[in-house]
Amino acid sequence: MQKKLNRKYFLFIVPAIFMVVAFKFFPIGNAFRLCLYDWDGFSPEMKFTGFENFKVLVKDQYFWKALKATLCYAFGITIVKNIVGLALGLFVNKEFKGRGAVRAIVYLPIMISGFIMGQIMYYFYQYDGGIFNELLGKLGIEPIYFMQTGNRTILVVILTTSILHIGSTMLTYLAGLQRIPNELKESCRLDGANKWNEFIHITLPLLQPSIISSVILNLIASFKIYDIIGAMGAGGPDGASSSLTQLISKYYFSQFRAGYGATIAFVFFFIIVVIAWPINKYLNSKKVEF
Amino acid sequence: MKKVFVCLLSLLLVFSLVGCSGDDGKSNNNKKPNQEIKDNPDANTLAGVNLEIAVNFTGDAQTAFASVCSAFENRYGATITIDWYGSDHATLMTTRMAANNMPDIYVTAGWSIKKYKNYSLDLRDEPYCKDYTDSALGVIQDKDGSIYVCMISEGINGVVYNVNVCEAAGVDYLSIHTWDDLWEACEKIKAYGITPLASRPNAGLTSNAVGTWLTYDGEIANVADKLIDGTWNWEEYRYVIQAYGKAIDNGYFFVDARSMNEMDTLERLAAGRAGIIIGDNTASVQTMYEMNNKGNFAIGPFPASTEEGVEAITVGEGDAFAISKNSKNIEAAKIFLRYLSEEEVTKKIISATGRKACQQPVLENDDTDGTKAFLRLEEEYKDHNMVYKNIFDREYLPSGMFGVLGNVAGKIFADHSKKGEDEIISYLQTEFKRLYK
To answer: Which stretches of chain A drop beneath a pLDDT of 70?
Structure first.
């Protein structure tokens, strides 16, 4: 009887299993197959080269530059968004006039496409005639070439992306803050705790579920950053601010090296797993039940 | 109040969704046959046919192409679904090629032979093929005589000048014969107080412009044979790196050249904030006239590298359309391409894309800006030792090298010291060897 019941339940998860296999495992398997070929992405002929693409990848300076930039984007954006997002969440959790408007304004940029936002911000950061440099000029300050080096460009992209997506992080924290029972805060205050102690000992530990989801989701999304970089200088100078997703697209579609592009994608997938998994484990171990 | 606001917002959303779903690329599905269709002998072939066409047009070119497609529908009674792929055209077409799911007709965007020929129908017997100019045939005719596209315009690449700036700085751009003359002109423009070059690091500098250093008789080097047989070691490319390196050190480029985009380049030349762009085309000339209709812009050839060398204009595919070999509507697609090559239709499209006509009858009667820029070039440079050549990478390099040379431009701007130069040569050797295989 129990076996029959289990079989019936199993039928319910068949569609989900099918979806996971068709849309996750199959593409990953196919990407690995492509890694073993020298293929231009469109010809019927594919030349089997074994692990040659992996050997090329180790020596590819653009891969290492893009990996460095991608790690900077992933951790930089995650840190900025979570710190500022939490601060904004705490701010809009307070009762004040115009709170709804503030929430809407902070959330608004998320509705603009990353590419458009990148284009807009490009005209802010531009060295020659950019809005920031125009303002600096009015103050008698020499113009700054914000995108002169790879590191500066990375910083500019981190700030721009963080501003664009801060709204979603703010909402995640706001939802978490509103779940914290008031009684706990009140009893803390009755015990003589000040605002800071209340935040450190009550708010922060109880926000752990929000922190976990926000950190992991932001980290993975930031690893995959693509459109803003394209709009703000296409990964220059000399690939120093290019992300791995951009590099994959460039090799796969512009340089007709689909096999090699797939190799980077495959390696990139494992990099994300290797980084995101332990962080997720660690944050889960800090979870507090209430 | 809140409820009213929510209702209004919902209505706005619904209407915007309806608006979005309205344009699926099909422009004329349920029209009743009009007199023009009834009178047209080809209308039977096209009755009930829906042609799918993938194009990369945006802006004015998109509007012009939509309009000619709509006129085609009215004339023949067929329907057309247009895939507006824009800047993603190459990417999406690559995906469709890999899936063997090609549209009936597609823009080949410069790659009719190297990339698309296995998928495209040979059109050499079509009537418009006899009208191609020699320069057009040089670009689209395969070694066995096959022609895979109906091309209505060519891309003409060279050096673009803001004539007003040049004159004000005391530069006669027509007297520029060698690269040294060009650098001298840059020095004069700089002395006049204007940044000489509006170029940015891209393959226009390091691929399109390098033929006169490396591949023609009388130039500082001629490695054409070695390039074609894959034995070149790229040592002579140092001339290119050193020339641009010196130009960078001399302050001929904008300080922010490394992060400029294409529009910055054109805007600065159009506004008279620079004098020259190396490696641009007639379409850019047209765009600059749109930005500044009081300007005076001309295109000239890439300079020679020695006094005895030749100046070169490079010619590439312009607006070119191929038919998929596997299309179920081959006859209808052929009729569409014949329609595109009609003089009025061609002129309508190229007046929007700014490219130069490439079919003799159209060329003779064309007054679009792209063609005008080309005719001005022909007239002004008739006494120069000038040749028309295929675009450098399409003639001499394996697929993928154009991107590599784009990277090289970035590298030159980042580091053109002796060490940087050696690294670039080594990078070029490795990539050329790999891609040549």
So the answer is: 1-5, 234, 236, 287-290
For chain B, list the domains and their CATH numbers.
27-152+318-365 (3.40.190.10), 156-315+376-436 (3.40.190.10)
Rounded-to-integer distance, Cα A193 and Cα A235, Å: 49
A239 contact residues in B (CB cutoff 8 A): 407, 410
pTM score, whole prediction: 0.77
Domain harbouring A280, CATH code: 1.10.3720.10
Residue in A236, A253, A258 nearest the CB of B259: A236
What is the rounded (10 degree) CA torsion for A149, A152, A153, A156? Answer: -160
Which stretch of A123-127, B50-54, B274-278 has the lowest confidence by average pLDDT? A123-127
ipTM score for this prediction: 0.70
In a domain, residue A161? The reply is yes
Mutate to test the interface with A, among B256, B405, B426 (most CBs of A within 10 A): B256
User: Residue A267: which domain range?
Assistant: 35-285
Q: Are strands B386-390 and B195-197 parallel, antiparallel or unpaired?
A: unpaired
Average of per-residue pLDDT across B397-413: 87
With an 8 Å Cβ cutoff, are B400 and A255 in contact?
yes
Tell me whether residue A129 is in a domain: yes
B162 pairs with which residues across the strands? B297
Whether A123 is in a domain gets the answer yes
Which positions ≥6 away from B280 have C-beta within 8 Å? B157, B158, B159, B160, B199, B204, B265, B299
Number of domains in chain A: 1
Task: Report pLDDT digits (tens) over A224-274.
Answer: 888 888 887 767 677 888 899 999 988 888 778 889 999 999 999 989 889
Q: Give the model confidence (pLDDT) of B345-367 as tens digits.
A: 999 998 888 788 888 888 888 77
Does the residue A46 lie in any domain?
A: yes
Q: What letter does residue A141 receive in the DSSP assignment?
A: P
Task: Provide the strand spans (E) within A16-126.
Answer: 37-38, 47-48
